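This section describes the prediction task in plain terms. A model, or a person checking by hand, is given the sequence of a single protein chain and must write out its three-dimensional structure as a string of tokens. No templates, partner chains or ligands are provided. The sample shown here is typical of the held-out split.
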Amino acid sequence: MSTPDNRETGGGRPQRADARTNRERILNVAEEVFGKGGQSASTEEVARLANVGIATVFRHFPTKAALLEAVLVQRFDRLREQAETLFHATDPGTAFFDFFSHLVTDAAGKIAIVEALLEAGGDKGGDAAQASDGLRRAVGALLEHAQRAGALRDDVELPEVYALLVATSQASAHAHLEGEVRDRMLAIVFDGLAPVRARDRE
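The expected answer:
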């Protein structure tokens, strides 16, 4: 399980307010630093930008891999929470497609963090995998809501839709697609996910 923000990483004692603040700041800075710099970014840069000593970083996160895993968990949890706020949207179709687009746009930073984690000797299992699964389930709920509303074709399921999400995310990130090209790519994908029109059945 992830270490709660109000606990010391090594014990079980509640953290002081300043320690919690330092941990949150380190995580937020690390997400930005590794999201932009990937494998070339360093914990020393994180410490400098977070205005803490390197010892403070390692007090909260004993290794670079531990820091990167915590960053991934935070990122997945935030995205899942964003998806959950859309569960009761008045337009489930728009909610699904907008969130799909958001995940694709957000993908470059996430992929850079994952690559940095693997380079640091970590893996995508454990807490990060659990957080990723939570996000996947939230996307599945948005998919079902859109299908029930008639905004999405009813003959597709989460595995293939998530495969499309992963593929378009990787294409956008690794091919460094311009925004206009990415939007056209998504428009093609979304057209394929749209309900079959009555005239298409004739």
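For orientation: The mean pLDDT is 87.
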